[in-house]
Amino acid sequence: MALLQIAEPGMSADPHQHRLAVGIDLGTTNSLVATVKNSETVVLADHEGRKLLPSVVRFLPDGSTAVGYEARRAVSEDAQNTIVSVKRFMGRSSAELKLNASLPYVFAENDGMLRVKTVAGDKSPVEISSEILKELKARAEESLGGELVGAVITVPAYFDDAQRQATKDAARLAGLNVLRLLNEPTAAALAYGLDEGAEGLYVIYDLGGGTFDVSVLRLTKGVFEVLATGGDSALGGDDFDHRIFCWAVSEANLSEILAPDDKSRLMVAARAVKEALSTAEEAAMNVTLSSGQTITLTLTRAKFKELTSRLVQKTIDTLDFVMRDAKLDRQNIQGLVLVGGSTRMPVIREAVKSYLGFDPLDNINPDEVVAVGAAKQANLLAGNSAGDDWLLLDVTPLSLGLETMGGLVEKIIPRNTPIPVAMAQDFTTFKDGQTAMAIHVVQGEREIVDACRSLARFELRGLPALVAGAARIRVTFSVDADGLLSVSARETQTGVEAHVTVKPSYGLTDEEIMRMLKDGTGNAQQDMHERALREEEVESRRLIESTVGALATDADLLTDQEQNNIRDLISRLLAAVESHELEAIKSLEKELTQATESFAERRMDRAIAQALSGKSVEDIEGK
């Protein structure tokens, strides 16, 4: 019997062909893309050898965008259209974000969806993040020389369902096939465990630019099991910058109402001071405001420690909470791995060492370790790692449940439950003759619905009209490997069923994403047309210049009619170039080339004749 090689959709049927897959660390401050080449994991760099891509997007009046270093240079000059730290806005409403005074943006909110007002229109965090992902995708495909089959994208472990869905939507908008969403601490543990051969109980302390996570993992012979996770998706290096910003405003006696560009200048200077204090005992802040006023201040490391003590303690409190959740003592821990650029701050390292009683591990670059782990997982999921064998057992960061009578929460899936998972619970009707039931899905640890996050609402209709308590409705919660939730409800006697794939209130709808994808395709076609036009214009100008030069030296080789025809074609081609008429340019280029073919041959004959003039056969052969 013949055997058939079956391939995943979109993948080659050749089992020996290396499939191009990458791991992407979509960060608050910087983003990276990594892949596995010849069994070695490498972080891909741009043309200038830079591995980090600043997570900054600038929108321009003509509808174009700048991403990365180019955009970051415009932060102080065009603050309202240059978006930084967009990851903090993902899947969030303005009420949840509690927007601080240092942000230079003007926000709009439609249907609960936060958007930033720019010269190119209102932009959602999903759209802004997709621009960063597009840049990383382009870098990877250029570097690897082919189209990607997929990507593993990392998210903070404490990202909830809305934030995860927003990340997946951004990837979809960028044209990426998401192989899996992977928790950042788990990705770091994967990189550390495989590279260092670590086994035992490890804590991953991940403090990035805008998010903070702690996870406790058990590493055992290729099995990466998350025992507990916790964190704060609104705590990171940006908050340390903001403390310096507030200190500077107070020290300089500045008005709290600052121009957007001045806010950005102060925040940029605050970040520079924070980074300088990682290696120096004090750092100077020099900022010239739009009014011409110059701010000159000096911040010491001791003062910085005082300003940020509450932020540092929040991370230690979370670390202690996760340890207790995992039912572990400090002496059980083999090591603590530092992840994220913000862990370079001495105040963080000192606090972690004080809590644990030993130095944390930092022998893998904290900026790159998450992308490296994601690349290893992507390589495995793409089918390239036949020799590798490891298992990731992740967990749900927050409890999932539904509302019951009295506004209470019944938890169906408790936090720190291994995923993927499906759990069910039976419910019944409250009134006699009740033929429908409203189901309200929530996420959080509190017992009261109002204190938890609403994820979705749907109705189960067609229930048998029985006395209260007689009907049996089974509600099933399913969480996939990406941490995304779907919920179904089924009346057991009649088989009546309803189902919802949870689509967060603060994400893009499927219709919006499809519209944006169509717009993107339309723009891509327009961009291709524009590129073709410009290439033809350059070629036409080159052709015109060379022909005019030839006429200036060898016009006597042409008849008057030939000269007039060539000069007429040059004039018409130049007019088409100035009018940006692509088809006319192509047609006239062809005509001019044909009209000058004979002229080119005559010029060649003349050049040869001049070169041979006065030479004998012996002279030529002697050469």
Characterization of this structure:
The protein is an alpha+beta fold. It contains 16 helices and 28 strands. The strands form 7 sheets. Strands 1, 2, 3, 4, 11 and 12 form a 6-stranded mixed beta sheet that branches. The longest helix has 45 residues. The N and C termini lie far apart (72 Å). The N terminus is likely disordered.
Write the layout of secondary structure elements.
Elements: E1 21-25, E2 30-37, E3 40-43, E4 53-54, E5 56-59, E6 65-67, H1 69-72, E7 82-84, H2 94-97, E8 107-110, E9 113-118, E10 121-123, H3 125-144, E11 150-155, H4 161-173, E12 178-183, H5 184-196, E13 200-207, E14 212-220, E15 223-232, H6 237-251, H7 260-276, E16 282-288, E17 294-300, H8 301-307, H9 309-325, E18 335-339, H10 346-356, H11 369-381, E19 391-395, E20 400-404, E21 408-413, E22 418-419, E23 421-427, E24 436-443, E25 453-461, E26 473-479, E27 485-491, E28 497-501, H12 510-554, H13 560-578, H14 582-595, H15 597-612, H16 617-622
Parallel strand pairs: 1-11, 11-12, 13-18, 15-19
Antiparallel strand pairs: 1-2, 2-3, 2-4, 5-6, 5-7, 8-9, 9-10, 13-14, 14-15, 16-17, 19-22, 20-21, 20-24, 23-26, 24-25, 26-27, 27-28
Instruction: Catalogue the unreliable spans.
Output: 1-15
| General shape | globular
Q: What percentage of amino acids are in beta strands? A: 25-35%
Q: What portion of residues is helical?
A: 25-40%
Structural class: alpha+beta
